[in-house]
UniProtKB/TrEMBL annotation:
Transmembrane segments: none annotated. The keyword NADP applies. This is NAD(P)/FAD-dependent oxidoreductase. One of its GO terms (molecular function) is N,N-dimethylaniline monooxygenase activity. It holds the Pfam family FMO-like.
Length: 499
């Protein structure tokens, strides 16, 4: 006898808690559970424990639309974000709906019953009418680490190698020589934080990344808070930041050379005279081909100015007992090497999906509005923006799913599925050059060449099409299963119980 709920949410991170809050507030009477593989609420912000961890988006857009961020800093540290997520869960009463240690490994849809059967790693099963995947986009088990020749010689001589995703609690880097391999958001966060206690830190990168300095405290937000209610000040600041980010992105795509000059000017102004800016901070790609890295108050550049940090642009030839030898022949002495080399992409937590006994092969599906999958009924997922805050998209998806469920309830439907149009041409799921995306694109669904199959990285457009657009269109097919109607009647009858 399996436990049955109307909605199962997979993941108790930023997206999953937001989804649960929307269900709690906007669909009263809906039964739901949040399944969390780990033993705590927080997702990314509970998993990552490396020094200096912080947001790579401002908190006025990374925060939920429905709950103001009241912290002072716009670029917040990990513990503050974790407190915010857990505080939201407590404020909206969804903590008791979270089931910990519940790792989902498979989910099978029965069209006859209009029901998902969800199997956990423990062997337990639950059923639901709607499955909502908020498990993120990467593997929680381990990050991506490339082949590192000679690694054994370094560790045998007492050197330590760590990946940020699995940061050991007892690691003490005080007074040590640290090399951080990588130049993405994690690396530029780690480097200045490690430099506070290390003897010296070197950021070793194969190629540069665009790095932009932003104020850690939003002065406009501070002024608005002095004059307006917290909710009003938050809403205005949020929209201000949305518009600024959108304008910056559009300028980068339409006038990339101008954006390159602006970024370079900002970087040069914060680095010491004579620093080789073009070698270390001039990427070969255009801005926003990969995500820009944000550093609050220029902390990375300040560490370089003060001589605590070096940047080296080169390739690793091999590890040695005392550090790393580079292709150029240069040797980097190291006691600790941090491999900030990226994430291992994992769609939908690696869950094996099947529909009426047929396995779902993700590359054969197409993404509808970036949140449903063609041919997979009663299933939604959250994947945030690559050019803006994750939560902007997560909030929109939550609003849409609640509207969709409400529409189905009002119209007497129990099944919805996006039917793919064979005339719509396939395109890669993400138009993004980052290595972690390119390594895994062949494993992901496709997007289409036109709406509603095209995955646009445009919050303003999505506000109109997702938040304001009609639920019914010529793509979604709604129906009701007679078998499911009988089962619902049985549960409602006196003495009725779980399926």
């Amino acid at each position: 006898m399996s436990e049955h709920v109307d909605v199962l949410v997979i993941g108790a991170g930023l997206s999953g808690i937001g989804a649960a809050c929307h269900l709690e507030e906007r669909l009263p009477g809906t039964s739901y559970l949040v399944l969390e593989a780990r033993d705590a609420i927080g997702g990314t912000w509970d998993l990552f424990r490396y020094p200096g961890i912080r947001s790579d988006s401002d908190m006025f857009t990374l925060g939920y639309r429905f709950r103001p961020w009241t912290g002072e800093r716009s670029i917040a540290d990990g513990p503050a974000i974790l407190d915010y997520v857990r505080g939201t869960a407590a404020a909206y009463g969804v903590e008791e709906k979270v089931r910990f240690g519940a790792k989902v490994v498979a989910a099978s849809w029965s069209g006859e019953d209009a029901t998902w059967t969800v199997r956990l790693a423990s062997g337990a099963e639950l059923t639901c009418g709607f499955l909502w995947c908020c498990s993120g986009y990467y593997s929680y088990d381990a990050g991506y680490t490339p082949d590192l020749p000679g690694l054994e010689a370094f560790t045998a001589a007492g050197g330590e190698v760590v990946h940020p995703q699995q940061w050991p609690e007892g690691l003490d880097h005080t007074g040590k020589r640290v090399v951080v391999v990588g130049s993405g958001a994690t690396a530029v966060t780690l480097v200045p934080a490690l430099a506070e206690r290390a003897a010296h830190v070197t950021m070793l990168q194969r190629s540069p990344t665009y790095v932009v300095s932003l104020p850690g405290v939003d002065r406009v937000a501070a002024r608005l808070r002095e004059r307006l209610s917290p909710a009003r000040a938050y809403a205005l600041t949020r929209w201000k930041n949305v518009l600024v980010t959108t304008a910056s992105y559009q300028l980068a795509r339409r006038r990339p050379e101008l954006m390159k000059r602006l970024i370079r000017k900002g970087v040069t102004s914060q680095l010491p005279a004579g620093f080789d800016v073009d070698r270390h901070f001039k990427p070969a790609y255009d801005p926003w081909d990969q995500r820009l890295c944000l550093v609050p108050d220029g902390d990375l550049f300040r560490s370089i100015r003060h001589g605590r940090v070096d940047v080296v642009t080169d390739h690793i030839d091999t590890f040695t007992p005392t550090g790393l030898r580079l292709v150029s022949g240069e040797e980097l002495a190291a006691d600790v090497v941090v491999t900030a080399t990226g994430l291992a992409l994992l769609a939908f937590g690696g869950i094996a999906l099947s529909v009426d006994g047929v396995d779902v092969h993700l590359p054969e599906t197409m993404a509808y509005k970036g949140m449903l999958l063609s041919g997979v009924p009663n299933f939604a997922y959250v994947i945030g923006y690559t050019n803006a805050s994750w939560t902007l998209k997560a909030d929109l998806v939550s609003e849409y799913v609640v509207r969709l469920l409400s529409f189905m309830r009002d119209q007497g439907h129990d099944t919805v599925v996006a039917e793919r149009d064979p005339a719509v041409e396939e395109e890669p799921f993400m138009d993004f050059a980052s290595g972690y995306v390119q390594r895994s694109l062949h494993l992901l669904p496709k997007q289409g060449s036109r709406a509603p199959w095209r995955l646009r990285q445009n919050y303003l457009r999505d506000v109109l099409t997702i938040r304001r657009g009609a639920v019914e269109d010529d793509v979604l097919r709604f129906s009701h299963s007679p078998s499911a109607r009988d089962r619902a009647s049985a549960r409602a009858a006196p003495g009725g119980g779980p399926d």
